[in-house]
Amino acid sequence: MTYCVAMCLADGLVFASDSRTNAGFDQISTFRKMHEFRQPGERELVVLSAGNLATSQSVISLLEKRAGTGSGDILATGSLFEAAELIGQTMRDVVRRDNPDGKINHVDFSCSLILGGQIRGEQPRLFNIYPEGNFIEATRETPYFQIGEAKYGKPVLDRVLHHETSLERAYQCALISFDSTMKSNLSVGMPLDVAIYRNNDLQLCFNERVDEHNRYFQTLRQQWHQGIQALVNSLEPPAINQKRTTLSA
Amino acid sequence: MTYCVAMCLADGLVFASDSRTNAGFDQISTFRKMHEFRQPGERELVVLSAGNLATSQSVISLLEKRAGTGSGDILATGSLFEAAELIGQTMRDVVRRDNPDGKINHVDFSCSLILGGQIRGEQPRLFNIYPEGNFIEATRETPYFQIGEAKYGKPVLDRVLHHETSLERAYQCALISFDSTMKSNLSVGMPLDVAIYRNNDLQLCFNERVDEHNRYFQTLRQQWHQGIQALVNSLEPPAINQKRTTLSA
Question: Which of A86, A123, A166, B59 has the most CB atoms around its CB within 10 Å?
Fold first, then answer.
């Protein structure tokens, strides 16, 4: 599996992805799921991928091959919206290449992508591109998207994240969301790729590959884990000795 | 959907279930998913159910109908293990009744159950009964089971719960696990049913239907939510302005 999250906030964009892929429990590998298409000063696009690795790699390879050629060119789209359309179409083309008549039912060729970034003249935007190639855009009310193994790490995002959250805080939330996911699910694994984009920079302001030895991640996960223990210890105890009843009563 | 969790701890057992069922978004109802089979002083059995409601209701109805008759009698099994076998077999019988040849493929008739309790002469035990009717038992290393929409509420359990956790603390964890799940997923909903069994009591020591107005649950979810905000605010801030690199570098 995979876990990726991306956030579209007042100050910019935050992206994070894990790097574990598996085809069965005995075929586990490390692949980067964060991809960048850049023209400093003109556009900064980040794509996160989940799902069938053959499909997502082909989509990224085709986008890279065509970048700068003027045809199917992700560096030439007039807007992020058009970039999302191009990626969705490329995804459909790849799935059709590998499963032309849709007859192969025992393999899931689909993948899910997140596209975020900014093109000069537009505001930063964030899109969730579905396996069918259609897509939705993040808004102030729904400032983040997840793909892959999303459920474990969702509660902390839902409690903390909103459109006005700072990039630093959002980055912390993303790391905590990954820590919670990796603690409960073996199919999401280190290292993580993290990138931060600040509005109108037209290039990333920060990116990092976070591995087990990353000092900040170690500190953060320890502070979080100890903080949760302390929080649980501080809760008002329940009065469970006051009732003795039967369920069926 | 549904979310149920049950824990087998040093001091006893804790059970919790939501009550929302849905067949599509416009057919939402409230059904109890916690069921009790009791002979005070002899045995206390609690069953939690998730999955196809027609199947799980039929299983419970058959177990209730046969209780005390001496045949297929859940009040007559010599052990919790035999009770799990009986429930698994009853589940297989119901699925076979409703889908005799296994030909109906567009409906999922399956359900998942958790059985926990104590029969005089045995220790308390906890079983996770799979849709196929086979089952596993909780151990010191794996003291809890979840069925249904389990992922959102798993991280807090994995951080806090272990075999020596007190019943009071485990009850708090269960409520927080439900709060996190309900905040992120609409298909799990109030009221909750909660029951606590203390070793060798041979009857429940506490049970409660927790609705939106439950004062303790209100306090707990507020303390937890505010505590998470405070914990996030206390984390060491990241130094995201120190690096400026490209992903592809």
Answer: B59
Residues of A in contact with B183 (CB under 8 A): 155, 158-159
Report pTM.
0.91
Report whether B28 contacts B100 (CB < 8 A): no
Which residue ranges form the domains of chain B, and what is each CATH number? Answer: 3-234 (3.60.20.10)
Q: Which of A171, A180, A238 sits opposite B238 (nearest CB)?
A: A171
Cβ contact, residue pair B235, A184, below 8 Å: no
Element (H, E) at A47: strand A43-51
CB A7 within 8 A of CB A193: no
Question: In this predicted complex, what is the ipTM?
Answer: 0.88
Cβ <8 Å between A168 and B203: no
Query: Alpha-carbon distance B21 to B127, whole Å?
Result: 23
- Per-residue pLDDT tens digits of chain B, which is 249 residues long: 899 999 999 999 999 999 998 877 778 888 999 999 999 999 999 999 999 999 999 999 999 999 999 999 999 999 999 999 999 999 999 999 999 988 898 899 999 999 999 999 999 999 999 999 999 999 999 999 999 999 999 999 999 999 999 999 999 999 999 999 999 888 899 999 999 999 999 999 999 999 999 999 999 999 999 999 999 999 999 988 755 555 544
Residues in chain A closer than 8 A to B225 (CB atoms): 159
Counted across chains A and B, CB pairs separated by less than 8 A come out at 162
Is residue B60 a contact partner of residue B47, using CB atoms and an 8 Å limit? yes
Give the nearest partner residue to A151 out of B151, B223, B244, using CB atoms: B151
Of B216, B237, B246, the CB nearest to A204: B246
Cβ contacts (< 8 Å) between B219 and chain A: which residues?
Answer: 236
